[in-house]
Amino acid sequence: MIKGIIFDFGGVLYGTPLSHIANLEERIGAEPSQLSNLLARSGSTGAWGRFERGEIDITIFERDLNKELQEVSLKTSASEILEVVPGKYNDALINYITQELLGNFQLAVVTNNFQIPAHQDPLQRVRDHFEVVVESSKVGYRKPEPLIYDYTFSRLNLAPNETIYIDDIGANLRYPASRGAATIKAGPTSDVVLILDTILNSETLSN
Fold this sequence. Notes:
Blueprint: E1 4-8, H1 18-27, H2 34-45, H3 47-52, H4 58-71, H5 78-82, H6 91-101, E2 106-111, H7 117-126, E3 132-135, H8 136-139, H9 146-156, E4 163-167, H10 171-178, E5 182-185, H11 192-206
Parallel strand pairs: 1-2, 1-4, 2-3, 4-5
């Protein structure tokens, strides 16, 4: 029986920066996905991942990411990348959460983020809708590292198979799915409200 629903923030509840990163790549004359691939690699053990885990401050982050950019001759900077704003809220999904889910399910947000206003301010608007808010930069691990999901299940006091996990990145869905959570991959053309409502209604009818 589904008792809890876990949402990614950027890319599900709030806009994703991927299209803006693509625009920045074009503006600086980079090859398609060159910058996004570097940031993905950096999210493992590089400056990006260390900043998302709260291991370094912004000064060290900018210094080290600038070095990574220079090593592959990308003509941009850490400060310019931080200016990339993800976009707008998914109002339809947020309304569904407040009108249909709040009070009926335990709700959580799990987000890879930085402790900077550009990340903290958008999250603040929806924080009160969720019993649990897990920020990589505060807990010290980031998606798709298993510990961040296990921490979230523990905070909700739920078994993974009692939850639905929603994210726009496939790699972030693998570990929750391996633990028995139902998963939904959000995307530009997917209707998360419809998919989630269908799953929950099917579950209700089967019980």
